[in-house]
Specification:
Elements: E1 6-7, H1 9-20, H2 23-40, H3 44-57, E2 76-77, E3 80-81, H4 89-92, H5 99-102, H6 121-139, E4 149-150, H7 151-171
Antiparallel strand pairs: 1-4, 2-3
Helix pairs in contact: 1-7
C-alpha cells in the first residue's frame, strides 16, 4: 500500500459511490488525499510518463526507479484499507502478507483471502481487459485515448466533478 496504483475511471466511480455511502471513510480519504497530493504533486506526472515509456517502449532513461514513488495510499488509514470491498484491480492483484494475514485473530479477519480466492484470480485476470474494453466501447470512447492516472486522483475528481468530469479528466492530454 505504498506504491503507485493506477486505476481506470470505472473503478474510481465504484470507489466514489462506496465513499458516498460511507461518510466517515470519505472524510478520512479527503484529508489523506490532501497530504498525498502535496507529497506526490512535484513528481507524479513525470514519474508516470517515465513508467509508461519504460513499459510501452522498453526505454529507460534512468531518471527514476520504481521504488522512487512510494507514498502511503490515502485509503490506508491506521494500517487498514478503507475501500477493501471495492479496491481496484491493481490492489486485488497484489499479495499482502501482513501479520494479520499470517495470524488472524478470527477466521473472518484474514484480509488477503476474502472476496477473490486463488482459484478465481486467473479467470478474473484473463477477462479483465476484454471487460474493460467493452465498457469503453459502451461509453463510445477509444480506450487508447484514455490517459493513465493514479487511483487517488481519479477518485477525488469523481467526488468533486462527477462522471462527466472524471471522463474529461481521464481523456485530457496533460
Amino acid at each position: 500500500c505504498k506504491q503507485a496504483v493506477l486505476a481506470n475511471p470505472f473503478e474510481a466511480v465504484l470507489i466514489g459511490i462506496y465513499l458516498s455511502n460511507h461518510q466517515a471513510q470519505r472524510e478520512e480519504f479527503v484529508q489523506a488525499y490532501a497530504r498525498w497530493d502535496l507529497e506526490t504533486r512535484s513528481m507524479r506526472d513525470d514519474f508516470l510518463a517515465w513508467a509508461e515509456r519504460r513499459y510501452r517502449d522498453n526505454a529507460d532513461d534512468g531518471k527514476y526507479h520504481f521504488s522512487d514513488f512510494h507514498p502511503d495510499c490515502p485509503f490506508l488509514i491506521d494500517g487498514l484499507c478503507r475501500i477493501y470491498p471495492v479496491r481496484p484491480y491493481a490492489c486485488r492483484s497484489c499479495l499482502a502478507l501482513t501479520e494479520e494475514c499470517a495470524h488472524p485473530t478470527t477466521p473472518g479477519s484474514r484480509p488477503g483471502f476474502q472476496g477473490m480466492d486463488v482459484g478465481s484470480y486467473p479467470h478474473y485476470k484473463k477477462n479483465y481487459q476484454s471487460f474493460l474494453q467493452s465498457l469503453w466501447m459502451r461509453c463510445g470512447i477509444e480506450s487508447k485515448a484514455v490517459r493513465n492516472r493514479f487511483m487517488p486522483e481519479l477518485v477525488i475528481v469523481f467526488l468533486d466533478r462527477g462522471v462527466e468530469g472524471l471522463l474529461e479528466f481521464s481523456l485530457a492530454a496533460g
